[in-house]
């Protein structure tokens, strides 16, 4: 059972303790997200994947390891939006391309980008 001294301590200092706990939970969330993405995208089967309907521009950035600006240019996204909430199925339809054609386009640009970085 909690001692009465500890209860008084917590009662007097509930705001800093609550702030500490909240910031700890937020830090754990972002740490977990970072580690999960690092592990997932370092697996070779998740690198340079063929595009699927559900994928997002951010997924392409992570899978193909190319900058956001290049992906936004390929997909025809404006600078303000950068494709938040946009799925590749919608992008392919807007460009009158199939997902296979869009995959080839992105792979070519990714290869050119990687060669320019050597």
Tell me about this structure.
Helix content is 66%, strand content 0%. With 118 residues, it is mostly helical. Helix 3 packs across helix 4.
Summarize the structure.
With 118 residues, the chain is mostly helical. 66% of the residues lie in helices and 0% in strands.
Tally of domains:
2
The CA-CA distance between the termini, in Å, is: 63 Å
Gyration radius from CA atoms, angstroms: 22 Å
Largest β-sheet summary: none
* Strand-residue proportion: under 5%
Poorly predicted parts: none
* 3D shape: elongated
The percent of residues in helical segments reads: 55-70%
The number of helical segments is 6
Q: What is the structural class?
A: mainly alpha
Question: Would you spell out the secondary-structure blueprint of this structure?
Answer:
Elements lengths: L3 H9 L1 H28 L15 H8 L3 H8 L12 H7 L4 H18 L2
Helix pairs in contact: 3-4
Q: What descriptive keywords fit this protein?
A:
elongated; 0% strand; 2 domains; 6 helices; 118 residues; mainly alpha; single chain
